[in-house]
TrEMBL record:
Pfam families: 5-FTHF_cyc-lig, RRM_1
Key words, A-Z: RNA-binding
SUPFAM superfamilies: NagB/RpiA/CoA transferase-like, RNA-binding domain, RBD
Coiled-coil ranges per UniProt: none
UniProt protein name: Methenyltetrahydrofolate synthase domain-containing protein
Gene coding for it: Mthfsd
Species this chain originates from: Microtus ochrogaster
Length: 370
């Protein structure tokens, strides 16, 4: 595709989306507009990452949930690497760890690599988890050979990387790879780049592998002056990180809202408020198991619930094991639940008692959360 000289990032996005659709380069889901485009040949393009030393030598790989990156997720699982996938729109945390069942066949691994598999075979990872990402793989709408990247416009890949920096999960030497169609490799005017934009070190297309040797620095953390109150409301884990950085003495002043002469007011909440907001954003329900109004401060995630499981069945099992939480957030459609306890010691004790728990034919996955 010829060099693009759009006056805006959105102009470049629209031209690429239109180009891919008009030349039938796109694959399901279509149309590709407002998406990270899944292109014909994306699965084969993903195979080229095996030839990169930065992939072969990794243990923990973070791969975005976009459809064209499905082949990378499968390769990571087949190579027995720890595969981390960001939670959708960061509503329930930062990462899900994909955990295939023991003895999983290649067909099962293929399912684990899909978006449905990410939902069914994953365990949420809290901010206190010991995560050290060796390689970051992101989707793109456009990318230049200099390593400059444009996403679909929502900013989640940039924010996820900044959050990983803040929690110490990546450093400036952690390589970033993107996989795109050849037509998505274009000239991007440097004037369009901002300091929060994530750059890439390698570009993989169906026909070539490009080492960008990008000299532009990657984000060094969350730029709070670009974070709005709305973002904090929608992303509970972002609120937790802000509170941590505030306690560390960092400047966490938020974005000035349009039409306002003052910085956006703090939306920091007490632990109880955060948990209620999480439940609302998840579409789940806080179900008190005690008549006392409490403020739980630690969580345990229970995954791989049977599709026909009922909350009363889980409550009964928790009571039998002596692991009754203060509150329970039921996420039946996602086959999981969040158990809220008074402190980390109670959560750790509950997680220990729940190891090996079965509901029906399913062995439940249990993990400590934030």
């Amino acid at each position: 595709m010829e060099a693009l000289e759009g006056v805006s990032k959105q102009g470049i996005r629209e031209r690429i989306w239109d180009y891919m659709e008009s030349r039938d380069l796109a694959d399901f889901p279509r149309p590709v507009h407002n998406r990270i485009p899944n292109f014909k040949g994306s699965y084969l393009a993903c195979q080229s990452i095996k030839d990169l030393d930065v992939f072969a030598g990794t243990q923990e790989v973070k791969v975005d949930p976009d459809k064209p990156l499905e082949g990378v997720r499968l390769l990571a699982l087949q190579s027995k690497k720890t595969l981390l996938v960001p939670t959708p729109r960061l509503r329930t945390g930062l990462f899900n760890k994909i955990t295939p069942p023991p003895g999983a066949t290649k067909d099962i691994l293929r399912k684990c690599a899909t978006s449905q598999g990410v939902r069914n075979f994953s365990v949420p990872m809290g901010l206190d988890s010991s995560v050290l990402v060796d390689l970051v793989v992101v989707g793109s709408v456009a990318v230049s050979e200099k390593g400059w990247r444009i996403g679909k416009g929502e900013g989640y890949a940039d924010l996820e990387y900044a959050m990983m920096v803040s929690m110490g999960a990546v450093h400036k030497g952690t390589p970033v790879v993107t996989i795109v169609h050849d037509c998505q490799v274009v000239d991007i005017p440097e004037a369009l780049l901002e300091d929060h934009d994530l750059t890439v070190d390698y570009i993989i297309t169906p026909t070539r592998v490009i080492a960008t040797d990008c000299a532009r620095p990657k984000p060094t953390g969350i730029i709070w002056s670009k974070v709005s109150c709305e973002m904090l409301t929608k992303i509970p884990v972002l609120r937790i990180l802000r509170e941590q950085e505030k306690r560390a003495g960092k400047d966490v002043a938020l974005q000035v809202e349009p039409g306002s002469q003052h910085p956006a007011p703090s939306t920091m909440r007490r632990p109880r408020d955060i948990l209620q907001s999480q439940a609302a954003s998840l579409g789940g329900s806080h179900s008190p198991l005690h008549g006392v109004d409490t403020q739980p401060a630690a969580t345990v995630y229970v995954g791989n619930l049977p599709s026909n499981a009922r909350v009363r069945e889980l409550k009964r099992a928790l009571q039998e094991l002596g692991a009754v939480p203060l509150r329970l957030t039921w996420q039946g459609p996602q086959h999981r639940a969040i158990l809220h306890y008074a402190d980390s010691a109670a959560a750790q004790q509950a997680a220990s008692r729940l190891q090996g728990l079965h509901l029906g034919a399913n062995s439940l996955r249990v993990a400590l959360g934030q």
